[in-house]
Specification:
3 strands; single chain; 3-stranded antiparallel β-sheet
């Protein structure tokens, strides 16, 4: 709910401000990093790493305690997720790799957990942080474009790596210069067309996730301004947003599998 003495605009801007740190004039400063390319969003990094640790701990614990008999609820839940991701990889990825399935599982679960933080009421954690001297706190890492770009660039690097590994430098170069028109005179046109298509993959991958989660966070902030009416509306939007949270994690995972599958194919 908007604080006394603050307008709705100030309330929203405050909640959309990251806790940042950067080096300025030879000193480390907090929340004075506007325009600084090397500023670090501490809150995004903290929650991303913490949720990654939660994923590794949870799945690692289940893997160590797996039993061949009747599984418990947690093991059943993990097995359902692993089976779902494994089936998605088998149906989409046509190459041979021991990396793709673990990567897809990690991306799906990690992004889902980061997205799920959007269902925490927007004032709870920032209010608690303000009482220990933290002025700004954003708890959904995927509403930070730096986080989504970092993940998409990682996928992009893997795509380039496997394209060169499977097709060779010559094959990868021919794919960029002789597609879609297999003629030497069309090389400049093909290079521009395929180059734009290649660079569009990480950009669209990151902006799709960022845009959907940022919009969801903004709607929660607008609902929080409605006073007593925020509770039923928050619940209704949270139920619908749960679908978006899951869908965005699934889309990012599937596009990653598709891009890496294309990297493994020889034309």
């Amino acid at each position: 709910m908007a604080e006394a003495g603050h307008s709705a605009g100030e309330y929203i801007v405050h909640h959309l401000q990251n806790l940042t740190v950067c080096r300025k004039d030879g000193e480390w400063v907090w929340n004075q990093c506007d325009g600084n390319f090397y500023a670090l969003n501490v809150d995004s990094m903290f929650f991303a790493v913490a949720l990654g640790f939660v994923f590794l701990t949870l799945f690692g614990r289940v893997a160590k305690r797996v039993t061949p008999g009747v599984p418990g609820r947690l093991q059943t839940f993990v097995e359902i997720i692993v089976g779902f991701v494994d089936q998605s990889v088998r149906e989409t990825f046509h190459g041979r790799s021991h990396v793709i399935a673990p990567l897809a599982l990690t991306l799906f679960c990690w992004i889902f957990l980061m997205n799920l933080m959007d269902l925490v009421p927007v004032d709870w954690l920032p209010w608690a942080a303000s009482h220990v001297g933290v002025p700004y706190l954003r708890v959904v890492p995927t509403t930070d474009v730096n986080v989504t770009f970092a993940m998409s660039i990682s996928v992009f690097i893997l795509t380039i790596f496997y394209s060169i590994k499977i097709k060779g430098v010559g094959g990868f170069t021919r794919e960029l210069t002789l597609t879609p028109f297999n003629h030497w005179a069309a090389i400049p046109f093909n290079l521009v067309l395929e180059g734009v298509s290649l660079l569009a993959k990480p950009i669209s991958l990151s902006l799709r996730l960022f845009g959907n989660m940022y919009a969801g966070e903004l709607i929660f902030l607008l609902i929080a301004l409605l006073g007593i009416w925020q509770l039923p509306l928050h619940f209704l939007w949270a139920v619908f947003h749960l679908l978006i949270v899951t869908l965005q994690a699934f889309i990012f995972m599937m596009l990653t599998i598709v891009y890496l599958s294309l990297a493994h194919e020889k034309h």
